[in-house]
Amino acid sequence: MTVTIKTPEEIEKMRVAGRLAAEVLVMIEPHVNAGVTTEELDRICHDYIVNVQGAIPAPLNYHGFPKSICTSLNHQVCHGIPGERVLKNGDILNIDITVIKDGYHGDTSRMFFVGKPSIIAERVSRVSQECLYLGIRMVKPGVRLGDIGNAIQRHAEASNCSVVREYCGHGIGQKFHEEPQVLHYGEPGTGMVLREGMTFTIEPMINAGKRQIRMLRDGWTVVTKDHSLSAQWEHTLLVTPDGVEVLTLRPDEAL
Asked: Could you read off the pLDDT tens digit of each residue along the chain, which spans 255 residues?
């Protein structure tokens, strides 16, 4: 398993890419309303990334993915393809943004509520965000990835939710997906030891029901097998000498 330790110059480029990705999520929030299509959200994000930020939307044509963002709705776990689906009151939506700027990637996602969410929707979204923040707070040199995954798993399951195991966080830099794989479950004392200069994502996919999933016929969209709601929050992180820097932190967040 080869992990790239980023140089100071690369870290600065990662900071820029991360800030831009975060800005897209801030920009799109006022547009996430009942009556809008996910395709329209994709168009707005694409135009902003390309024409305002001067960056590249990483998902577009990545292994054939047809759009510039991922929009995963309700029981969709990840990799939802924007399309003609119209948002309605009560929907929950994950928007996943990855931008490339000067050859480096910034990757982040968050949940949005359309109107008033159900109690279950609010809970699974909150638990997913808590899992992300719990994992982030553990990041520092010397910590093992298995300890982070175990802490996330225990928190989710203690909250009567489940952790999707088929998809995970990942190293990131010049490549969209690098080593290491960052599992959101695991055994304490196992896994890679974190080192200063590593950059990776934590992005727990948390289901309100059982953890089993299936892929739709489009070859991309992943949904819960039992049709329970699913939620995900994601940040790109840098391991610093004494802790962690969240490269995709938004102004409204306090960790």
From this structure: 689 999 999 999 999 999 999 999 999 999 999 999 999 999 999 999 999 999 999 999 999 999 999 999 999 999 999 999 999 999 999 999 999 999 999 999 999 999 999 999 999 999 999 999 999 999 999 999 999 999 999 999 999 999 999 999 999 999 999 999 999 999 999 999 999 999 999 999 999 999 999 999 999 999 999 999 999 999 999 999 999 999 999 999 988
Residues facing residue 95 across a β-bridge: 71, 110
Structure tokens at 191: 């896994």
Q: Distance (Å, rounded) from C-alpha 162 to C-alpha 151?
A: 13
Strand positions, DSSP E, 114-248 = 162-163, 169-171, 178-182, 199-202, 205-207, 213-215, 222-224, 230-232, 235-240, 243-246
User: What is the DSSP secondary structure assignment for residue 62, as one 8-state letter?
Assistant: G
